[in-house]
Design goal:
Number of strands: 13
Shape: globular
CATH class of one domain: Alpha Beta
Number of helices: 16
Largest sheet: 7 strands, mixed
Structural class: alpha/beta
CATH superfamily of one domain: Type I PLP-dependent aspartate aminotransferase-like (Major domain)
Helix content: 40-55%
CATH architecture of one domain: 3-Layer(aba) Sandwich
Distance between the termini: 5 Å
CATH topology of one domain: Aspartate Aminotransferase, domain 2
Strand order of the largest sheet: 1-7-6-5-4-2-3
Radius of gyration: 23 Å
């Protein structure tokens, strides 16, 4: 409960520091998901100071706070220029908006496409199965039908022909990824954009993950295919600055080829006695802190800085991939094309979920990915520049973790639990059953130290049941502190 007389400032900060000590390390090059660390000395302090100058500035009204408008416009210009837009380019009239993250950018891309066709009562979007789950969230929130196109289990990409076949008269948007998050491969953007344009449909490129780094990798000689506004038919692109632009959370940019395409993204409302609300994004009040921090980060690192960071990341990716190739029983899901290393097990005696726990015990925090359709479970590594100084340590630790995982053997779920996973429906999950499952899996006051049992159960469950289990498990963790 809130203290009657307040708490001294230093004590409050001590409490926060103690709580933070329980978290995964956000610096040091050993966390392969969630955060993006360039390993640049002094950058945190700069971003923090910039955030503090604008934390209380409100993005609701750009006429009241023109400093924020200027910084947003600069961020959009820098991002658009990197991705084939701006004066003298293939997209000279590119415009954009700064959002809170990739999910908001994708929701707004879907909203703009949907609202551009008010005559359609049942709009649809076409998205590869490898497209980010935020597209499904957008479809759910905006009541748009999601048409999913499967990916080839060998290439991990959708075929252009399958995308074309999925387009209907009600389709308002076709999406593709550069690259996909799960496996780090780049979809055939040029072909997808061509079939979308032929059908008169918008094409959005989700480059939230790679949009900032792919242009630099191309300059370094990596064979990056066309994916941006240089591709005819690409109408919008999303790029997260809090990923490989290394800005603090949460700042993304949604670009449109021109202002006409962006117009339906806005929300305006005047039919009430207060101020007329005009929002380019989902939020009304927005702190200027993240935008100022992103502005400071981009201005400080500069083009040469990002090129150096991309080179360090490229080298780290190569070393990590070589380490995986050197272990019997592991194979890369795809040869790295960007900043992702993703691998799976080819040995039934080598349980990937146990391996993930063994890597965690050695200080490497990776991201397990469950089975989907014809695709096996895998381990995902998002590689950042901060990994480069530590990359030589990974190979020996991976070999040791694999040996330990083999000694431990695969996780074996109790027969009754395995039967439940195969037979339960989401509607059959009662609070009592959820409580029993959570207790059996060690989900008490917090996540267990080892997650292999939990991941094995989720991997055995159909997607709908998996979703409900995770909702309930997270709900158990998020309870008030009295």
């Amino acid at each position: 409960m809130i203290d009657e007389n307040g708490v001294p400032a230093e004590r409050v900060l001590d409490e926060i520091r103690q709580l933070r000590a329980q978290d995964r390390p956000v610096h040091g090059g050993r966390l392969f998901a969630y955060v993006y660390d360039p390993g640049v000395a002094g950058l945190d302090a700069l971003a923090g100071a910039a955030h503090a100058t604008s934390a209380h500035v409100n993005g609701l009204d750009p006429t009241a706070f023109p400093s924020l408008l200027a910084m947003e416009n600069w961020l959009v210009g820098a991002t658009g220029g990197l991705l084939g837009g701006g004066p003298g380019s293939a997209a000279p009239d590119v415009v954009g908006s700064v959002t809170s993250g990739g999910t908001e950018s994708l929701i707004l891309a879907v909203k703009a496409a949907r609202d551009a066709h008010p005559e359609l009562t049942a709009p649809r979007i076409v998205v590869p199965a490898s497209g980010h789950a935020a597209f499904a969230k957008a479809a759910h929130l905006l009541r748009v039908t999601l048409d999913t196109v499967g990916v080839d289990p060998a290439t991990l990409r959708p075929s252009v022909a399958d995308v074309a076949a999925a387009i209907r008269p009600e389709t308002v948007l076709v999406a593709c990824s550069a690259p996909s998050y799960a496996h780090g491969v780049i979809d055939p953007v040029a072909g997808i954009a061509e079939v979308a344009a032929a059908a008169g449909v918008r094409c959005h490129v989700d480059a939230c993950f790679g949009g900032w780094t792919l242009p630099y990798l191309r300059r370094l000689g990596v064979p990056v295919p066309p994916f941006d506004f240089t591709v005819d038919g690409v109408t919008s692109i999303s790029v997260d600055l809090h990923k490989y632009a290394y800005a603090p959370k949460g700042v993304s940019v949604l670009l449109h080829r021109d202002a006409t395409l962006r117009a339906p993204q806005f929300f305006a409302y005047a039919d009430w006695p207060g101020y007329t609300m005009v929002n380019p994004v989902l939020a009304s009040t927005r702190s200027g802190g993240p935008i100022a921090a992103a502005y400071a980060t981009l201005r400080h690192l500069g083009d040469d800085g990002y090129l150096r960071l991309a080179a360090a990341t490229r080298d780290a990716v190569g070393c990590l991939a070589a380490a995986v190739r050197g272990v019997d029983g592991l194979r890369l899901m795809a040869e790295p094309e960007s900043t992702v290393v993703c691998f799976t097990s080819t040995d039934p005696a080598l349980d990937l979920f146990v391996l993930v726990d063994e890597l965690t015990a050695r200080g490497w925090h990776t991201q397990p990915q469950l089975r989907y359709a014809d695709l096996p479970a895998s381990v995902h590594l998002t590689v950042t520049a901060s990994v480069a100084p530590r990359v030589a340590e990974f190979g020996p630790d991976l070999a040791a973790a694999v040996a330990a995982a083999r000694r431990a053997g695969p996780v074996e779920l109790p027969a009754e639990l395995l039967a439940l996973a195969g037979s339960l429906t989401p509607a059959a999950l009662t609070p009592e059953l959820i409580g029993g499952l959570a207790a059996g899996l060690g989900l008490g006051a917090g996540p267990p130290d080892r997650m292999a049992m939990v991941n094995t159960l989720l991997d055995a469950a159909p997607a709908a049941l998996r979703e409900r289990l995770l909702v309930e498990f997270v709900g158990l963790l998020q309870r008030p502190t009295w």
